[in-house]
Amino acid sequence: MTDVIHFGTDGWRGTIAEDYTFANVRRCAQGFANHLLKEGNAGKKVVVGYDRRFDSEYFAAASAEVLAANGFLALLTDGPTPTPSVSWAVTAQGACGAINITASHNPGTDNGFKVRDSRGAALAPEALLEVESLIPADPSLIKRIPLEHALTAGSIARFDPAPAYIEQIGRMVDLPSLRASPLKIVADPMWGNGAGWMERLLGGGKLEIIEIHSARNPLFPDMLRPEPIQPNVDTGLRTTVERGADALVITDGDADRVGFGDEHGTFINQLQVYGLLALYMLEVRGLRGAIVKTLSTTSMLEKLGKKYGVPVYSTGVGFKYVAPKMIETNALIGGEESGGFAFRGHAPERDGILAALFLLDMMVRLDCKPSQLVKHLFEEVGAEYFYDRIDLPLAPEQREAALGRVTAARPESLAGLRVVGRDTTDGFKYIFEDGGWMLVRFSGTESIIRVYCETTHGDKVRAILDDGVRLVDLPPE
Q: pTM for the full model?
């Protein structure tokens, strides 16, 4: 029986050798090729990139073989490449789209298949559904030219996307000023594609870079998974204190997400990071424009939007919703709770490397340590905000019953806070009278339920999350 492949929040991910096989990757590549052909892109370029996971380079080559056989010029990166540079290469090369072999922040057992449009952006939900519908079940419908034959014929070409990406980064941020600053930073690429990039962009000046977890290791030791949240970042936080560094900057497995730690070894959570990046754009850079956020990220953005006179738009979770809204509104910044942020003037796609550089630039321009930046943010929004998240394993046979329980729930209060609103745009979000919120959401890429909350009541975070878990009411293991 042929596996049914579904594209979730950000492409398709699966377990290597179980459902993530060469046969299924080729099926996905053929489905994407069919979509591009249907859109009138015959004969155009398509970028193919990959990460440092097990066999990623071979899965990427298999994808390029299918594209070449369908008449495209497949531009195959010459090594593991940060996702944001793959997205930018679409623009730089005049390509009609991209395939990226990566499972981002998933555990090492997984790999993934992401697709991008002609702007380097995530495909809109309706386009992803079309790609799904065009994935052939019959292997005989998959076209393929062996890699070496295609390279000889010129229908696959290897290329280095780094020079164009570095040039673009130099347009977005003042790299010479950062290099000349006396900062000492710890960089943690989490064994992934961000390895070496801080040195490549900022080395050669006064700024000192201490890099950890920089080798290729598909097992991702020293962490549960290459996701820039605790406890995965704890080694980096300890190293920051031990080495007397000013900040910790973290990129996830494919470098499209960012994490940040302060000089005291305290993790600055993703919602705080989004608040800092928005404040940097509005206050430090003096720019104006819409802010796009997923409903799972911070309410501080509404406070900043009101203060600086810019609109704030909320979307479902995933850049397949954020990117189209950014393009529609010419947004200044777009982002999500997972630490992915995109910026006007760049590809409408997450860029953990650029976001990290912006945070460092904010430190330099305001002459502040990270802890001082967070304090300044809270002063700007008029309160201190607290956030946390719980991930609950969910067996496929449990999903329908759990969804039914949460759908039927109508709590009047959670952790003693009165519920004044309910948003079911993407999951089940309960809004409190103080402006805080709790969200229960069934993941689109993993077999888990996530329960999130943000509140100005630091002593209620755990109780809010516990009440969210009770709404789901999963049976004990």
A: 0.94
